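ok trying again, last paste got cut off:
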Amino acid sequence: MTSTTATSPRGPALVRAVGVWALAASIFNVTVGGGIFRLPAGAAAAAGPAAPFVYLICAAVMGFVVLCFAEAGSRITLTGGPYAYVEAVFGRYVGFLAGVLLWMLGTTAVAGVSSAFAEGLGALFNMPSLRVPVLVTMFTVLALVNMRGVEQGTKL
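nice, full thing came through this time. structure:
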């Protein structure tokens, strides 16, 4: 896949290096990653025997949310995802706020899933002290890969 720079009325925009399959894999990775490490036990305990139905209802609702994002994405030519959709409708300031909130959401989600993963590894090997080295190593490797470029990050 080759990278191309998108253009906007304000000049060059972000590099378009993430294709449809890489984006789908990323969304799947975040959804499954967040769902595997913490959600199932707590949801099953809270929902009891109705847990399978709760999961199906949540899957249907998420499907509708994804359809909304797909529709919004098909109408906006700029890169930026939700930030671009909100900016096109409500203006730059509200778009900026949406971008900041999206960044905060992504940061806290990655921190939570990473922490749960490292904690799970520590419990698996009965070594609670393994948590910090796993987190440092994982984020160092990911940072190095992403410093090489967006395409290498999406391939990983």
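cool. Residues 92-124 form the longest helix (33 residues). The chain has a mean pLDDT of 80.
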